[in-house]
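Might you be able to check the backbone structure tokens below? Thank you kindly.
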Amino acid sequence: MKKERRPKYRRILIKLSGEALGGEDGVGINSDSIFGMAEQIEEVRSLGVQVVVVVGGGNIYRGASGVKGIERATGDYMGMLATVINALALQDALEKRGVATRVQSAIAMSQVAEPFIRRRAVRHLEKDRVVIFGGGTGNPYFSTDTAAALRANEIGAEVILKATKVDGIYDCDPKLNPNARRFDRISYLEALQKQLKVMDSTAFSLCMDNKMPIIVFDFFKEHNLKRVVLGDIVGTLVTA
């Protein structure tokens, strides 16, 4: 009888971009994409792994490069509201699969989401619920990458899993250069020196200062999330 492998991580944070929810076009909410995400999250939850998700809003509105003429701070708040829409969509997809889920928002909106309270979030995890964080950090001028780095440290996650459409970090854009080299593992310092855009600088610094490992991987390859959680070499590990 084949022995079931034990997960390498007990508590993970998955960073999902808004564009990932939009499918191939990266716009709006694509049902195939969101139900596929829910399926992968359910798969790792069934292993006993505690799962936190931070979701972006770029498929609906991106604050930094939104409508021309709108003030940056206002645009960022609009983007934060978009992340809550995505969080609710993901919650619905997960609960349709029988996964207990809570949405917490950094911006107060009590009719649709709990306020972000660290102790309550940790308690939800201890009760085997998936927690989805919307609303970014609640402050303009900070990306959802920064929200992911902040929340991962706050709730004691062991790793940030940055879900993308590429299979790791390359020394240049693999779509433009077929000879681009992929890294299996890279240090924070080397990633900074090579100016590899793993996350924005604020988020990356927060991870580096607190020695929070980041794994960048292709979330859309079947069972990849489970493979990462089990400790297989998938994507690129950024570590000290």
Q: What stands out?
A: The domain at 11-239 is CATH 3.40.1160.10 (Carbamate kinase). The two ends are 38 Å apart (CA to CA). The helical segments are 18-21, 31-45, 72-95, 118-126, 144-154, 188-193, 201-209, 224-229. The CA atoms of residues 163 and 219 lie 5 Å apart.
